[in-house]
Amino acid sequence: MRLIGDGVVDREGVAGLAARLGYSARQVQRQLTAELGAGPVALARAQRAHTARVLVQTTDLPITEIAFASGFASVRQFNDTIREVYAATPSELRATAPNGGRGGRRATAPSAEIPLRLAFRGPYQSGAVFDLLADEAVPGVEEVSGQPGRRTYRRTLRLPHGTGIVAVDERTGTVKSASGSHPGGWLDARLHLTDPRDLTTAVGRLRRLLDLDSDPYAVDERLGADERLAPLVAARPGLRSPGAADAEEVAVRAVTGRAGAQRLVARYGKTLDAPSGSLTHLFPEPAVLAGAEPHGVLGALTAALADGALRLDPGADREDAQAALAALPGMDPATAAVIRARALGDPDVAPPGLDVPDSWRPWRSYALQHLRAAGELD
User: Fold this and answer.
1) Any idea what the Cα angle at residue 237 is, between residues 233 and 242, rounded to 5°?
2) For residue 159, which of 101, 198, 292, 339 is within the disulfide window of CB 3.0 to 4.6 Å?
3) Contact present, 9 and 303 (Cβ < 8 Å)
């Protein structure tokens, strides 16, 4: 599902999805249909419809542009799908937007701002996530501004069809009804994309970075039953284990540290065509770094990423990636554990040498976040 959400079916077809997973196209079709009741084409179609609805209701882009930006092969296919999924025409969807389709803060060009709400389930400790983002921010690529509780995180993204600058606010929105507030809510986000076809991919990467798809109830129930963790979970319900907006970038940064990453950006990062304040560069690609700094563990890592020996994309097998990391000359197990937790989004990683009970499985990554938040772990 992560690969479909990242747009692989739209860009590479079912055959490309199957190749990434190591199965035949028929096996992928059969497995997804058995588990989800729909095959990869239908799931990708639903994803395209969602992207189209967002663009219809939050931008003033022409309907024809939205059709192709959403990945549809024709305007007719776009219209038919929207009618089938939403029981409304694109024009009717636009009329139901909060501003009634009359403009306002709506994007009028592909690079204009697209406002979104990034929904999450249950409680969400946004302060802890933004503390981590602020501590790790690499100048030129990222920034965190504002006071705690009202901070904004901004960063650049390299995307399949272009580039983007995304901004997310720390303050959470809350679901409310006549009976009061309910668990769950959203983070307000704004996206500037050079190509609107990248909307789905950009949103997916933000969700992985902020760990918005976690089930906090399952995590807290398990960890809250542990005597040591119970008071920590009670103090910070819904604490998340942040992932990566760019898995390969996170892997490089795990090796170099923040200062080393800043040096790489300044020396090898690609300058944005349209910088935005302090955001001026894209993080350098592995192929660039492999050629520029081929020695040591950094050279081994970037070479493996560049030639495909190490895969960290949303569909990568975690055990295969772990084995590839362990085989890199100079890669220490602690750094490999960080890469597995952050780049691969593994919820159950324990650093080597740390006494972590099996009772914390399958949420050991979250348990370590609780220990760090409580000052019990560096």
Assistant:
1) 100
2) 198
3) no
pLDDT for res 132: 96
Which of 158, 129, 112 has the alpha carbon at shortest distance from 265? 158
Nearest to 79 by CA among 114, 49, 109: 49
C-alpha torsion 224→225→230→236, nearest 10: 0
pLDDT digits (tens, 9 = 90+) for 242-271: 999 999 999 999 999 999 999 999 999 999
pLDDT tens per residue, range 326-355? 999 999 999 999 999 999 999 999 989 888
> Of the candidates 301, 287, 305, which has an alpha carbon nearest to the alpha carbon of residue 329?
301
Amino acid at 200: T
Q: How far apart are CA 108 and CA 119, in angstroms?
A: 25
SS (H, E, C) 239-302: CCCCCCCCHHHHHHHHHHHHHHHHHHHHHHCEEEEEEECCEEEECCCHHHHHHHCCCHHHHHHH
pLDDT computed for residue 50 by the predictor: 85
Per-residue pLDDT at 178:
62
**Collapsed DSSP state (helix, strand, coil) of residue 236:** coil
Looking at residue 108, what is its pLDDT? 47
- pLDDT tens digits, one per residue of 40-68: 777 778 888 888 888 888 777 889 888 88
Is the per-residue pLDDT at 110 higher than 60? no
pTM summary value? 0.84
- CA separation, residue 179 to residues 3, 18, 156, 167, 171 (Å): 38, 47, 40, 32, 22
Domains annotated for the chain, with CATH where assigned, are: 2-92 (1.10.10.60), 113-213 (3.30.310), 247-346 (1.10.340.30)
- How far, in Å, CA of 282 to CA of 291, rounded? 17
Answer yes or no: are the C-beta atoms of 95 and 86 closer than 8 Å: no
| Residue 277 burial (C-beta neighbours within 10 Å; 0-12, 13-18, 19+) | exposed
In whole angstroms, give the CA distance from residue 132 to residue 243. 11
DSSP assigned state of 107: B
Q: What is the C-alpha to C-alpha distance for residues 111 and 163, in angstroms, rounded to an integer?
A: 9
Integer Rg of the chain from CA:
21
Closest Cα partner for 173 from 160, 162, 187, 159? 187
